[in-house]
Amino acid sequence: xxxxxxxxxxxxxSTLQKILNAILGFISVPxxxxxxxxxxxxxxxxxxxxxGYMHLLDLGMNTGAIKFFSQWKAEGKQDLxxxxxxxxxxxxxxxxxxxxxxxxxxxxxxxxxxxxxxxQFLQLRMCLFIIALFSIFSWAATTFNQLLVADKQMAYxxxxxxxxxxxxxxxxxVVLWAHLSLTVYFFWLTVILALLLIPYAIKCxxxxxxxxxxxxxxxxxxxxxxxxxLSIFALSLFQMTATQSRxxxxxxxxxxxxxxxxxxxxxxxxxxxxxxxGGTFSxxxxxxxxxxxxxxxxxxxxxxIYNWTIYTSIIACxxxxxxxxxxxxxxSAYVGAEYGYLSIWLVIWxxxxxxxxxxxxxxxxxxxxxxxxxxxxxxxxxxxxxxxxNALFSQKYGVGSAIVGYSCYIIIVLVVNYFxxxxxxxxxxxxxxxxxxxxxxxxxILSFMLSSYFADFFIFDSYSTRIxxxxxxxxxxxxxxxxxxxxxxxLRVIRIKNHKIISFYEYQKRN
Length: 511
Prior knowledge:
Layout: H1 2-36, H2 38-54, H3 61-74, H4 78-109, H5 118-150, H6 154-178, H7 182-194, H8 197-206, H9 219-253, H10 257-278, H11 280-295, H12 298-325, H13 327-335, H14 343-358, H15 360-369, H16 373-397, H17 400-425, H18 430-454, H19 465-490, E1 494-497, E2 500-503, H20 504-510
Antiparallel strand pairs: 1-2
Helix pairs in contact: 1-2, 1-6, 1-10, 2-5, 2-9, 2-10, 3-4, 3-5, 3-9, 4-5, 4-9, 5-6, 5-7, 5-8, 6-7, 9-10, 9-16, 9-17, 10-12, 10-14, 11-12, 11-15, 12-14, 12-15, 12-18, 12-19, 13-19, 14-17, 16-17, 18-19
């Protein structure tokens, strides 16, 4: 019962926190964009992108520490947890110092790097100094978050982050009411983010998850976690580089760095939300795929992959197609009709996201299998190609160059997965894998065509412009969902049997 409560509460609070963050992003971007202007808002985006890249310094420790803290807790090795956790504090303080030095160096000598005016760089410099000032607090909070998650208190961490999101939302309205400058707003935003350290540390001490908040140096014990974490880091390095480098490259190579990055931040909100929701599958699938690898039952493995590729593809279609259909409406409602020209790039980005999410079950099996050397090499090559493409086309396509680069990254990774991992490592049928993905997508495309035709009969123009856009988005989404549901069941991609939903693959197996 406790286990079920843990999963339910963790899922509930994690989902609520993501929804609140999505609402905050939906509210904050147009408000701050309108208040500070496109160029100044782009300064915030550049500063946060620079700091986001610094999170590579984690070296995969977040995953490694949670794994070993959980394992040692089950084995009753509380003393070992305390020694490693206190050494982890020391580790993150050292990382924070490196983070601080890098940001300060960028603030002092980085003006020639970015495509911004001198006045814009002065604001960027202040933002980088602010992040550097609070970096120790932000990094130190990571250890306590790891302890809480390993102790199955993810619900608590999500509750604290929900409160944090509420404070960030209130800060937006304080900006508009008190007319705060960009630098003052960014200072208080960074303070709110850094304050996570206090409730996390108090909770860990109160629940005896750590015996002291004093840093330690038990490096021999710590080396066990670090060695495992570095293998995770090797894979995540290139994935994060591909993501975090996009706005930085745009700020350097595009004609107007601040404005182009601002456009990038506008259209990334929706794909980020889709990836954030779809990304929860990875944590769900990994334990199951690890069990399948241990049992070495190829039939069960194939059944799992084919079935869940169908279900994941259906969910990915539900997440992606409404925004593909209504891209112009959602952008116009979000930041204004003058940004409608970005809709084509948003559509391409979402299509790539759809292709990325469908491979989640098979990717979890690859990670469980442990043969990630080719995957790391592929990520490295596709990362550098995507960065080069982004830089080469920044002048011509502006924000679109980042989307083209991202498309190259996804295509290369999927090609290697399908023609190497799926075929030779996992021994899966490429035809079945593609069909499991394409069957829901075909239903999505048919529903797209039908809803596009009938949407003309449900156009709202009786209210204020923004409300009309929202109503049109809702109407288009409702039509698409209705047609998609009919298509999915009519074409028997899934069906109901004995009060259970089963896929066409599972139905064929049973019959």
